[in-house]
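Example record

The entry below shows one chain as it appears in the dataset: sequence first, then structure tokens.
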Amino acid sequence: MTLLRHARSAAMTALALTLSTPALAAPAPPLYLGADLSFTNEMEACGARFLEHGKPADPFVVLKQHGGNVMRVRLWHTPTWTQYSTYDDVLKTITRAHAAGLNVLLDFHYSDDWADGDKQPAPAAWANLPTDAQVKALHDYTREVLDKLAAAGQLPEMVQVGNETNAAVQGGVKDQPIDWTRNARLLNAGISAVRESAKAHGKPIQVMLHIAQPENIIPWFDAATAAGVLDYDIIGISYYSKWSTYNLSGLGKVIDAAHRRYGAQVWVVETAYAFSDDHADDTTNLLGSDSAIPGYPVSPKGQLKYLQDLTQTVVNNGGNGVVYWAPDWVSTRCKTRWGTGSSWENAAMFDIRHHEALPAFDWLGKTYKPQR
């Protein structure tokens, strides 16, 4: 990746349209297909029993057996409203993933709660710190978490330095101007901590930067590059048709442009599609027929076709990964801040009534080759 980083730095100083071809071609990275299983421990504690062919099934094993090779998990700093997505819960999740033979992508939210494309709330412990102290805190926390995971034999293969960081890290909100001098310092502090930990433990860790919706990719990464944020391996994109102005073709064009422009791998690291408009609880579902894409019915077959065609689009345009978000967030007796059950039960990859694995898992085992 050294040649790619030099090329990125040289080309993007002038915001050139493409990278120069490296003198030596690096081996093509593998195609990563998988899912975010951050909810599994919680759902099981809430009484969910996952099935495949009517028999008890472990979602991590199901993911692997169908052809998946990566599992993503989120980490909150010090959540006071849940016992999940804490360090201990994440360690359990990573251990389960590695035991199933999956690579792990650890998603640092750098928050006590959801950090996303609209808001990036700082952890309470850091919220009132001056910038220098926040930079140090973010670096030291990242390094501490990774060192603890290494001591447990569970160092992840990939790390997200922030989740959907469209707004400024540590306090930014949607449509608010970004102080890129400060933002770059924070992002680079997290990246440096990952690189240091990888070196200390003798294991390579790939760094991902993650932005919500493809229409935001080029403007954000151009600004990041101009501010000196250069040392990353993967660009992660959240793509949900309900909240994006781009269709699959438009997404593909962004993937191609980003790969050429920045010399990084490009993944769709969050996506989902509803398989039903049914529900098993009173919590309003976020996806459904109101957000369906023409040609992809809201049905198990439509969900599978969406994932296959999305992955083919990614591959056709030089991308390297697709990760499904929350296939395990099924309806249970447990309450959330939004109500009892799940707002995602009809977009999971297990059915609504029995939590039986859906045909969508077959998306993982298909062979995808570029079709130009």
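Notes for this example: The radius of gyration is 20 Å. Residues 180-201 form the longest helix (22 residues).
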